[in-house]
Design a protein that fits this description.
- It is built from 5 helices and 4 strands.
- By secondary structure, it is an alpha+beta fold.
- It has one domain: Alpha-Beta Plaits (2-Layer Sandwich).
- The longest helix has 18 residues.
- The radius of gyration is 15 Å and the shape is globular.
Length: 153
Amino acid sequence: MANVYSKLYIQAIFAVNNRRALLHQDWRDEVFSYIAGILNERGNYALAVNGYHDHIHLFFDYGSKELLSDLVREIKKASNSFIKRNKFTNHSFSWQSGYGIFSHGYREKNTIIEYVKNQKQHHKKKPFKNEYLHFLNAYEIEFKDEYVFDFLE
């Protein structure tokens, strides 16, 4: 009987909900590490988890053990609880509803890892809104402006 073999590289992007409860530089690396752990525990392999004050990028080798929508929902729920439990912010923290999921090929792997790792430098030049809309357009994803994130510019 033949086995099933797959290699799926996924980039997920989602955003912070409250302008006053942004991912502060003092604690966001701890949150990113926590999320990488969630990915790994759920049968995936975190390649890069990083972001900026208003959003996060997850780049991982998708293990195909659960639906992507379930995975993202559980990551958001668990990380939201982690932030609240550790009292990282005095303001009400939550993630916005929705997310972007983008697939990448094996040959793009190192480029995407570096892109995710360099979010701070990247966003000195380009706001999150421009970055996210660029992804949607580059992947030819149809969208309505009113259903995209409330960008915190």
